[in-house]
Amino acid sequence: MKKNIHPAWMRSTVVCACGNTFETFGTKELLKVELCSKCHPHYTGQQRIVDTGGQVERFMRRMAKASGAKPTGAETTAKEPVAAQ
């Protein structure tokens, strides 16, 4: 077995976007995450859409356009592309 190929093992502090922090072991001293067990919908039982990059909003606009209905609510916050005449 090769020697000295594994990274150093140290205490790591995990910081979540919700403000929760906890310590574990890892290869980096600081880990920043978007979801943890305190705010993840699976563990909290709350229904929440985690939208990264506006994907849900784009999908809702596309579905509204396909059905012929006008988008309402959060779907109208983004600027619609202007068609060239």
Task: Pick out its properties.
2 helices, alpha+beta, 20% helix, single chain, Rhinovirus 14, subunit 4, 85 residues, 3-stranded mixed sheet
Give an overview of the whole structure:
The structure is a single chain. This protein has a domain at 10-68: Rhinovirus 14, subunit 4 (Irregular). It is built from 2 helices and 3 strands; from the N terminus they run βββαα. The protein has helices spanning 41-44, 55-67, and strands at 10-16, 21-26, 30-33.
CATH architecture of the domain at 10-68: Irregular
CATH class of the domain at 10-68: Few Secondary Structures
Q: Examine the coordinates and then state which fold CATH places here, giving the name of the CATH topology of the domain at 10-68.
A: Rhinovirus 14, subunit 4
Q: Give the spatial strand order of the biggest sheet.
A: 2-1-3
Q: If helices are DSSP runs of H or I spanning 4 or more residues, what is the number of helices?
A: 2
Distance between the termini: 69 Å
Poorly predicted parts: none
The gyration radius over C-alpha positions equals 21 Å
Shape: elongated
Structural class, by secondary structure, is alpha+beta
- Main sheet properties: 3 strands, mixed
What percentage of residues falls in helices of 4 or more residues? 10-25%
Strand content: 15-25%
On the 0 to 100 scale, the average pLDDT is: 79
Total strands: the figure is 3
Instruction: List the helices and strands in order.
Output: EEEHH
